[in-house]
Design goal:
Largest sheet: 2 strands, antiparallel
Radius of gyration: 16 Å
Helix content: 25-40%
Order of helices and strands: HHEHHHE
Strand order of the largest sheet: 1-2
Shape: globular
Structural class: alpha+beta
Strand content: 15-25%
Number of strands: 2
């Protein structure tokens, strides 16, 4: 998987995990038979945005993190559509 990396943020492709482990999963499994995908768990639909991400000021006070964690737990059934990140666990065969 190669992508052009010229310009700001083009080298940080947030879609890469989806491309490799979802869209091209059969290609990954064929090219890397020594690895088995154990888990793909979509996570954090809100906290990243509310924290201001990488470059913005936080939109929430630190004491509200537990509240938003609870909201995200409640929203867990919708994570496949809403999550911004994924926990991916690979096991070596």
């Amino acid at each position: 998987w190669e992508f052009p990396s010229s310009g700001p943020l083009l080298g940080a492709n947030g879609a890469l995990p989806w491309i490799v482990f979802e869209r091209d999963r059969t290609t990954f499994e064929k090219e890397f038979p020594q690895w088995r995908i154990e888990l793909i768990e979509p996570i954090m639909p809100l906290r990243y945005l509310l924290s201001g991400g990488v470059s913005m000021r936080s939109l929430q006070p630190g004491c509200a993190t537990g509240f938003w964690r609870g909201i995200e737990r409640f929203m867990q059934p919708m994570n496949k559509s809403l999550a911004m990140f994924a926990r991916i666990v690979l096991l070596r065969n």
